């Protein structure tokens, strides 16, 4: 658990977050700028099969906001061991986010 907390603290720094994505996604080019990053809520609610709500927390979510416009949302989910349900859990978080956005509009 301590390792997970340390990873989250390090990745929450905009310069570190930008470096991770610039190196992994953009082959070292400085596409994602630390000054444009805005932290987003990590809490998400998903529905269980029985209709009850389950609360989950993502590790890190940040938006690339340039000139007042959100361009893209990046997120990180850390794992210490292989967890085959992680993609399903992340899809649940995404669904909950879209559902929340559509209710707000």
Features:
single chain, alpha+beta, two-stranded antiparallel ribbon, 3-stranded antiparallel sheet
Mean pLDDT: 85
Uncertain spans? none
Basic shape: globular
Number of domains: 1
Query: What structural class do the secondary elements suggest?
Result: alpha+beta
Which percent band covers the strand fraction? Answer: 25-35%
Q: Tell me the number of helical segments per DSSP (H or I, 4 or more residues long).
A: 3
Biggest pleated-sheet summary? 3 strands, antiparallel
Give a description of the structure.
38% of the residues lie in helices and 27% in strands. With 105 residues, the chain is an alpha+beta fold. It has a 3-stranded antiparallel β-sheet, with no helix packed on it. Strand 4 and strand 5 form a beta hairpin. The model has no long low-confidence stretch (mean pLDDT 85).
Write the layout of secondary structure elements.
Layout (H helix, E strand, L loop, with lengths): L1 H10 L2 H11 L12 E3 L3 E5 L5 E5 L2 E7 L2 E8 L9 H19 L1
Antiparallel strand pairs: 1-4, 2-3, 4-5
Short description:
This protein is an alpha+beta fold. It has one domain (2-104). The protein is built from 3 helices and 5 strands; from the N terminus they run H-H-E-E-E-E-E-H.
